[in-house]
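Hey,
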Amino acid sequence: MAERRATTAPPQTVVKVGSDYYVLASSLGSRRASQVLANGRSFAVFETAGDIIDSPLEALGFFYSDTRHLGRFEVLISGAEPYFLNSYVSDDRAQFRATLTNADLGELGQKDWLPRNSIRANRGWVLGDTALFHRLTLHNYLNAAVEIEIDFYYAVDFADVFEVRGLRRKRRGEMLSPSVDGSRVELRYRGLDDAVRSTEIHFDAMPSEINESRAVFALRLEPGENRELECRITAGGESKSYSSITPSRASNFGEALAERQSELAEFRREWAVISASNNEFATMIRGAGVDLTSIVARGDRGDAFIMAGVPWFATLFGRDSIITALSVLPFHPQIAVRTLRTLARLQGESVDVARDEQPGKIVHEIRTGEMAALGEVPFGRYYGSVDATPLFLWLYGRCIECTGDLQLADELWPNVERAIEWIERWGDRDGDGYVKYLRETPRGLANQGWKDSADAIFHHDGQLARPPIALAEVQGYVYAACMDVASVASRLGRDSVADRLLTRAAALKQSFERDFWLDREGMIALALDADGRPCRVMTSNGAHCLATGLVDGDRAASMCKRLLADDMYSGWGIRTLSGKEKRYNPMSYHNGSVWPHDNAMAAIGLARAGDHAGVLKVLAGLFEASEKLSSSSLPELFCGFRREAGLGPVPYPVACYPQAWSAASVFMILQAMLGMRVLGFERRVLFDSHLIPSWLDWLSIDGLSVGAGRVSFVLRRSPNGAAIEVKEKSGGVRVEV
């Protein structure tokens, strides 16, 4: 059968992500259901029947190290697409399975006629490091032998992930001559960076025909017979990104599945186990942990971090990794430890304008694809985020408090000192006490906070703010960093550093309330522009200042009311921007959508301000959104349309899933709901909570690490709040309400 011709590509819609670096969303892609497997720096995205469709501007395919190593992999049964029955990703995210059957084949009543539903075709996919394994299992349900052909069509474009996102390149490298040998095909590409990237497609049986784009298997299936065909697709190359990873030891699908299941089980053992009386809520928590476990990546030197999200941010992001680690800190402190060590190793060392780098600054993003290697995008090792450095310090302080690990505190202290110096020298260049951003390279991100869209920071009249810009939430991160690092400094006997940080924090608190507080709005400004003029815009950014303690008292109470007012709270969560603002658009990336991690930070802020009912409102909205979205954990974001009875939230067209800080958001909200704090040095777990939702009778946490000790306990809802029953403890741990 001749290969099917590709249809004309549908028109593309630009969806902003970042500054000049956007994602093109095809109308076809927005209608396509997909499934995802992830494993460290590898991920694979399939359409729902298990095929990888040749669609260049969709994130379908097998990707490793920011390169698409498989852009098409489709199966036909006797020249026809099989019927789709169902598909799912396993509960542990180790494999993707799809069940198909044959279409009506041949002429009705003729000898070669094969009625539909005669052959069951089960497809399985497993992702192991740099190898993707596929298994097709056929079963003949007819009472007669069947002769069929199985066609595999495959192709590779070796596209950089930024090309898939929509960036056009003036030139590309060259495809090299393919190698076809028996049951093996190797496709290779020499990039403009002179690196050769390769994909090997290796079948476990000898095809009757094989070439660079197609393999054909002519099969005879006896009545009731099962037949398996397996294929291994391996990503390879000459660059450091490929040589630094140990290839999977598995030689077939079964071995790869066992290897991946074992690896995921090992990662899960490090978590405290959380269970709940509400099965749907327990499923959400379990799914979030599984999603986070699936995107753990190991670094070149044995360290580890959690990738930001699939497909667009499948790499290390300083800000995302830190907020994820903060979110899960009490339940998995080793994620924080590994994240801190990884970021410390990559800390800025010199002034490099092309990378927005200065000494002591924490990295924003690491990319390893061809376009980054050539400098076509500036993100090879890019430092253009204003918040990663104070967030690093905040995580350091919280992590040391939680673990009680002074050895770690001392190990990382040189990095802490350099980060403090960056805040004082580079972050606050004019000495007014505020940390600001101004991109050094015109090719970098124009906005360098978490809302990094080009149109995200503006004044009430819609006019964009002029840099350098002091974002509200960044000052909150600096305040929290000063307070928590000062505590560690005192324990290390560095009293002068502690005093300096506490003095800076006190001065920041005083000036912030003077310069950022908006009396008329009962809220703080989004930012101060280059002229010190406040952006009088109602956004969610202020919630981060509540979470860090920079705003408290009556002003904090006023902010809680504003965050939960109808123009901000959609019914599913707090929007990034009020529905009354000029730039409000519920379908935008940062100007009216709902971000779970942003809501989790708001929940911490609401709890700190004493608005426990507000915490439960945020939790309920996101929990119900998760159920309606039918995802095991929450996606990166969803649209901010007002909730309507009987309908679910509207997905954002190119949101990442799984996505680290969104999956982790439920753990941060749990901390907020329980008023939970782990004090490792004192071996105490503190709870300051008055409400548990009416739909939750009990919550159990087992194996919680508290310094050198551990504790397991159950919290039960009671008329007076939460009653705690300690089940087991070791190392002198105390639990206090």
